[in-house]
Amino acid sequence: MLPEIKKILYCTDLSKNASYAFKYAAYLAKQTGAEIHMLHIVEKLSSDARITLQTYVMSAKARDEFLNHRIDHAKDLLKQRQEYFWDVLAPTEKALRSQIASIDVIEHYPAESILKRSKELDVGLIIMGAHEKGIMHTFLGSVAKSVLRRSRIPTLIVPLPEKDELKRQKALRTNGSPTSSA
Questions:
Q1: What CA–CA distance (Å, rounded) separates 2 from 171?
Q2: Is the pLDDT higher at 93 or at 172?
């Protein structure tokens, strides 16, 4: 017998595909009654980037403000994406919002943070979106590959949506209503 999914870790990179992947997290949470834990990781600056920052930004206060701004910006963007998602959702589905148990934005290394958080929360499923490279080439990002390779927790990688779905999402963003397909 498969274990019951009581908690889902939804990992977002805040890309276009991320909100599409979140639809899967919301759907599965609705079907299973699971709570959703959202996680966005602002990747740590490399040693070279930190040295460059220290070299060209002399003020320690300005450096700290820059580093904090990265996290604050990610939190704001995540909040905007969430508000949009809940705004366009059917009124009968809005109760799903109560299944969001946590929303975290941290600065660290993505794959390691996802694996660590999934264990801390004892989740039954990790959900992430795939990435797009080039015009017609879809691939798994290095973070998704690393999580898939190292996780002992079932992981769902949501592929990029078809072009028709992308057009429908764009129409929703611009005028708030789905376009009809002819």
A1: 39
A2: 93
